[in-house]
Amino acid sequence: MLTSICRLRCPRCRLTPRLLPDEILPWVQHAMPDIQASCEIYVETDTSYREAAMAIAAASVPPQESLSTCWGGPDAPSLSPSTVFRWVDRFGRGVSAWWIILAAEAQARSAKALRPQEAPQGQAAKARSAAKASALKIAWHLLALLRWLRDHLAIPDWPRLLLLAPAKPRALDHTGFFAVCAAPRAPAPP
Asked: Which of 66, 165, 174, 179 has the largest CB neighbor count within 10 A?
């Protein structure tokens, strides 16, 4: 699906800003619903990155291909498993920064103490390290908290809820819900 972007040029300062629709973030090649769905599908279900990418693209594996090889041809979906992996990884690293702010917001809106549910057991099998298992568990809890806040604040989706939050953590990038990637280190001089 193509989207037209309006660009305006200021005659005084010569800057050219872009007017983006609400579902598109600057410098992100996919729309927020795709990012939201990829994080939710991977964190909340037992699907792999490949299966999540195929589900979001609403594509099926061609009969002569397999789930592992279908991204090698010209008819491959534009959303790749590596993109889903990056989104889930960056979302998982940004979760702890959001948790403190959103848990306080949810508790202030609730008459009784909030008790988080238990995360599903299938997540531990998807993680190859204890750190990844912990990040997936915290991401699952944050998605449950975001769903609760979304229902109580009547905001349709959690990316918009994060973008409209009154306070934002400093450890996040321009999108508002991804952790800042560490800058690559320069190689050591010879």
From this structure: 179
- Residue 72 domain-assigned? no
Domain count, the chain: 2
Amino acid identity, residue 93?
Answer: R
- For 145-176, what is each residue's pLDDT tens digit? 888 887 777 777 777 777 777 777 777 776 66
Tell me the chain's radius of gyration from C-alpha atoms: 19
Least confident of 29-33, 44-48, 139-143, 181-185: 181-185
Which letter does DSSP use for residue 19 in this model? E
Cα–Cα separations (whole angstroms), residue 161 to 81, 99, 108, 183: 26, 13, 16, 28
- Do 48 and 100 have their domain in common? no
Measured CA to CA, the distance from residue 62 to residue 39 in angstroms comes to 25
Domain that holds residue 105: 92-109+130-172
Indicate the Cα dihedral angle 156, 158, 164, 170, nearest 10°.
180
Q: What's the whole-model pTM score? A: 0.72
Cβ(103)–Cβ(145) below 8 Å: yes
pLDDT, tens digit, 9 for 90 and up, residues 89-104: 888 877 777 877 788 8
Say whether both 97 and 159 belong to one domain.
yes
**Do the domain assignments include residue 87?**
no
54 lies in some domain: yes
